[in-house]
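Trying the structure run again after the queue cleared.
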Amino acid sequence: MEIKQLESSLKEFYGKLKANKSSLHPIDVLIPISVAYILLPNNPIPSNTFAVTWTIWQLIFSPKKLRWAMWPIATVLLVSVRTWWLNEQPGLVSGADGLMIVVSMLAAVNINQKRWYFILISCLAALPLAALQLSPKPWTPNPFVGVNPGGYLLGLLLVIAIAWYSKPGKSLISVIISSMSSALALLLVWQTGSRAALVSSFLALAIVFLRERMQDKSVWREISLLTIFTGLCLGLKQLISPSSSGVPGLNISSDLGRILIGKCYLNLPLTGSNRLLYGVGFERPKAFCQEIINGGIADHSHNLYLQIWANSGILGLLGVALLAILLIQAWLKVGSDLDVFTRRAGKVALLYLIFQGFFDLSLLHLPIIQVFTGITLSAPIRKMSLNSA
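Done. Tokens:
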């Protein structure tokens, strides 16, 4: 009986794929390819190329009524193509990073709901590929990139997978794939030892699901089952490959170093003429604050908001505030216009980004991370062009 039910679910699943084929676009496969590529031990340049190519394509082939805005944006992106293509920012943090995030968000507004859904779900295919490279904790998915950027991306995939799993009315095959993806993503985040990704993902998920509890109690039933399933998977992993590492928590030397360098960046705009207004700039990352952390020298704040404050002052914070206000206003107007998955994935991803910014700067490391984040941020405003190609 269960075999027949699974067979029926598979037919329904592939039937939906076939029906939605005309709504999808081949260019969208560049995003899951770039996500998978960056989570494997490869040079990040091809992954950045795929992601930026997708963004430029979306801008150039935007609806005619939006080209008056999208084409000038594409011009700016193309003029700076060497920077994106080769990831040649002047330092770890660059003003161009903000441009990439915002441009990607605007590019994603032009895709319809089925394409948006496909992009997010298809990126989960990177999880089993990354798992093939799994090693004892602390595990770095891609040594060319570093553990924190990999952890950030895996954390984003984790919240997307759980948002998909909690979506009601899924077929049996979707339940199986989403539950396995959620458990696998949690395992991979755990193995990286990235506290920023782990804490931020759980905080974001908790806030969104607690808020929805009043309207939909079935969410908690599914989350409870997922928690049990995940616990069994982690227990099985520990049985097969024991690890002495515990839950990611306090690291006295690391945390003290981050606090000290954070204080330095907090005070930077107060130390010179007009720095309060526009900061010290993005082009001199090693000229001001350095701190020894775990035997290495850190020259950034490990905090997104402190970094923007130090590098661009009050005007930079104003820019971030404008984007935040736009997204909040868009979410307040959405209501039930978007399906459950889109609402949950978008809200959780936004909160994940906000919380993660307090712990790290992984968002600003690579164009692929910025593009994928920009796509998820587009959820509340993309309804303005749901019917576009």
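Residues 2-247+335-371 form one domain. Worth checking whether this holds up in the mutant runs.
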